[in-house]
Specification:
Two copies of one chain form a homodimer. The first copy, chain A, has helices at residues 5-20, 27-33, 39-45, 48-78, 85-100, 106-116, 122-146, 152-170, 172-176, 187-202. Chain A is an all-alpha fold. Chain A folds into two domains: 1-46, Arc Repressor Mutant, subunit A (Orthogonal Bundle); 55-227, Tetracycline Repressor, domain 2. In chain A, α1 crosses α2, α1 packs across α6 and α6 packs across α8. Chain A is globular. The structure holds a DNA duplex (30 and 30 nucleotides).
Chain lengths: 227, 227
DNA sequence: AACAGTTTCAAACAACTGTTTTAATCATGA
DNA sequence: TCATGATTAAAACAGTTGTTTGAAACTGTT
């Protein structure tokens, strides 16, 4: 291992958290893998919780900056006009998929992140909420502008579903093998696959039953395109 | 608590696993919630691992039987003709959503299950694979028959994405609140929402880049409907 | 009423957890 | 060279973990 103790611990923790989960990963496993002393974790990070947060912060901050940068680029190009849904999806999910394809650390992290969205632990949930606040606000605004006739709650659910698909796409290889033999070696193919699926889902006809609360009465209310 | 010790333990374990995860839930938490003695878990189930498996088996067997029964019903009705994709989605995911709406136990379990698909632990993964083998074989066959011109690997990925969306839809409430205030009290609305999204994703145009290996050459290869 | 089998209980087990402590080692500039 | 601060190291800490034990309590049967 080349880098300093602090970085070696973060790298080892990232790998082990993704492999065994947070609770099941002990500080002794981490420090052993990092060729560091047991006390090094508490020395450099204070507590195990603080270590977990730093594992996320280190890459998540950068990921969300990339997302916002991608959105900025599209919006600058559009000069005030609403973006295409495809562009917004690209900025949010495309960036994530590309990071997941990055062998040098990003891959492991993204798999870990995908599994962590549904983690029930309190401090992780509130930490993620804080870390995501800005990027979510930006993308919600962009989507609402691009799809003005989709009820906001409807869209939030779809965004949530898309996060689920992304999560599985990333942490996918292992779980997917339950279904059958698949090839997950080509990140570009995965990218293309996920984007098709996401946009198909995002722009599916609005569900019929729902009273579409605050959208103008539609001519064919039961099979109207989402956008 | 009314039922016998064994059932009380299973119920308490289900709740606590879903709330804190497997590792973070201790036998003492479980037995305390179940008003049982600590040794009762080892007496009735042998080990903690065996308890976890039984928590799943108890409901998962029934869930997958329901799925197969729903598929049987549609296939009997179709008299040998391919089913509509919507029917197959309904049989697999619809049944799951309805079970997730069942307050009397099913809801908690489905949330737990959704989070567990991506669980890395070995014995859970192999246990799930075994428990799902039959139902997956049936549904793969039905889908391939219904969508003969969709490459099989392409479909497996979409099925995987759909599982991700389902997982988030079910375990959703908590994670979704990161996005904003939503109403998740109406299971029928959730059902309608998820079905629209899933079918939109399933039938989205095949991704352009991919060499569509074993499907007949299409007139418009870059934006052909999946089915 | 005496029996056998099942279930419950309190207590203890060794192993492991995150964290702290104290001393040793290192690096670096005066 | 020496002092100063940062890092590493070994050992111990108190608390918790899943599991086992052996006796008590309960169950239904003869």
């Amino acid at each position: 291992m080349e880098p300093d103790t602090r970085s070696r611990i973060l790298n080892s923790a990232e790998n082990l958290f993704m492999e065994h989960g947070f609770e099941a990963t002990t500080l002794r496993m981490i420090t052993a893998a990092a060729h560091a002393n047991l006390a090094a974790v508490n020395y450099h990070f204070g507590t195990k919780e603080a270590l977990i947060e730093e594992v996320f912060r280190r890459r998540l901050t950068w990921l969300n900056e990339q997302r916002i940068a991608a959105l900025d680029a599209f919006e600058a190009e559009a000069k005030g006009a609403p973006l295409k849904p495809r562009q917004i999806v690209e900025a949010f999910f495309g960036v994530a998929i590309r990071m997941a394809a990055d062998k040098s650390g990003g891959q492991t992290f993204m798999r870990l992140l995908g599994r962590t969205y549904t983690e029930p632990t309190d401090f992780i949930r509130s930490f993620l909420a804080e870390e995501y606040a800005e990027v979510i606000a930006r993308f919600k605004a962009a989507f609402f502008k691009a799809l003005p006739d989709v009820p906001q709650e409807e869209f939030l659910w779809r965004f949530h579903f898309m996060m689920g698909a992304l999560s599985y796409a990333i942490s996918g290889a292992d779980a997917l093998r339950i279904l059958g033999p698949v090839d997950d070696s080509d990140p570009e193919a995965l990218y293309a696959r996920l984007m098709s699926f996401l946009i198909g889902g995002l722009r599916a006809p609005l569900p019929a039953l729902l009273p579409t609360i605050h959208s103008k009465p539609a001519r064919k209310p039961r099979a109207r395109r989402a956008a």
